[in-house]
Batch of 3 targets.
Target 1
Amino acid sequence: MGDLRVLNGAMARLPDDQVTTRLAELPEWERQGDEIVRSYQAPSFLEGVAFVSRLAELAEAANHHPDIDIRWRTVRIALTTHDDGGLSDKDFVLAGQIDATFTAG
């Protein structure tokens, strides 16, 4: 899903045109300000919680932690790179991994 760009030890904030290009690779995600968001519909509440547990492991391994909201069977994920004040490659890489985890679940 692309190389991570690093500037002075931090991720580089992506310009708007690159955000648009990266979002085209993740059709279920949408931009809301300085975040990308997606909602997943799980077959049951327990399966939604199990999905959150799997994605928590991905987030911890990447040291990149999304905002997660669970509402019965709906799991909403929001990603942004707070240290950069916006979206970076790190957000899009993790979004792709989360999609794969949901599909594989």
Target 2
Amino acid sequence: MMRLLTFDALITGGVPIIPRSLKYHKDILNIWDHCLFYDYEDIQNPLAITEKANNLFDERGTQGVLDRHTISCYNYHVDNRVETMLKAIYDEFEVEGLTVV
């Protein structure tokens, strides 16, 4: 669920705020520059992390929105995921003559 919310935030251009425990998850490693990580203290007092996210959003402006949308759309959108799965199947079973678009 958290992964879904992270990529929902990215595809809309937002700055996801995700648990620090997921920082080294394989799907999160490539998006460090586009998200913030929260700790227990941030749950107790969310004002600081929220302000940090808002400042990051404002600092990066329109280009940041486009960057976050693009990284999500071209790396994590369902089309890309299905293409990756099909390619793995084709490679595993040495299927030839089929093209993954």
Target 3
Amino acid sequence: MGFSLTGTHVIYFIASVIIASAVSGALIAVIQDVTSSFDEKGDDIQDKMDFDFKIINDPDNIPSDVSNYVFYMKNIGRKKISTSTTTFQVFVDGELLLTSNYSFTDESIQVGDVTTMNISKTDISAGSHELRVVGPQAIEDEFSFEI
């Protein structure tokens, strides 16, 4: 005696349920990976919004003292920023400055406050220049100026 039509349908039904379960399991894993990636990206964007600063000098009139040019940096983010030569890297015309050639007058900048960054005159000659300051969370600001 052969298999009845009902028996064949039951086998096909069970096979369909197994295949559907495998596909849905794979889709759930992919969706969880995508959701996790979105969460991480959102956290990165939030960190970048929390830490932000801007160089606010007049590009045609850079103040100086005996040995340094003076640049003003304002905290425009949502958190206090620690200012040190380990927190910030400074580039002039694409060249990374030695940490001994720049300094900050304050140890940190509160939200909305301004600090002074001093850069040695030996690193900046007369003419047009590009200053790039990279801070926490790789937040950066570029500033073109003339000496």
